[in-house]
Each structure stands twice: as C-alpha cells, then as structure tokens.
Amino acid sequence: MTTTSAPESTTTTVPVVVAPTSSVPVSSSYSIDISGFSFAPSALTVQVGDTVTWTNLDSATHTVTFNGSPSLSSGGLQEGGTHSVTFDSVGTYAYGCSPHAYMQGTITVTK
Ligand SMILES: [Cu+2]
Fold it and tell me: Top-level CATH class of 29-110?
C-alpha cells in the first residue's frame, strides 16, 4: 500500500516593492494658528530640520515666547503676523504667549 501524501506547496513568494528612499532628508513645514487666544495645535511633534510657522489670526497681539530662548521667540505679532522657527536640535520646547500666560504650547522635536 502506498500513501501519497506529498504536501503541495501553497506558499507563494510575493515580491515586496519598496519605494526608493531618498538619502537626502526632507524637511517639512508645519503651521500653527494663533486663534481664539490659543495655539492650534497646542502640541506638535516635528523632526529635526523642520520649520514651524505661527500665524496670529486674532485681532489681539500675541507672542510666541520660548522661555530661555529669546532667539526662538517672536516679538509682538499683530493680526496676520507670522513667526517661523526651524528646529535644529532634538528636545521638547515649551512656549507661551507673553501677555496671556494661559496660552501654552509645546513643540517636540525628534530625530
Ligand atoms: Cu496672547
């Protein structure tokens, strides 16, 4: 008696197409609205080299103030005013609005 139990192979190899990755890091730009006396979004995660631009949509004057980092901070932003920061170092950056202490935001910079 012969048993024919040769298992049929049903395994097929599907080629995985991998999109070519650029060796040049691509930096991104992000926008934060200052609107209704708050930063939107108030928490944002970016990568090193990315640029964040704040735009004041309120009629009130606001600031983007990083404690201990005047070079990152804006002056008073009138309605329509913008402020851009390019983040070069990993870290967590807390900021606020000088005239309105309750306005707080955080930028987290990752590799
Ligand atoms: Cu403000």
Answer: mainly beta
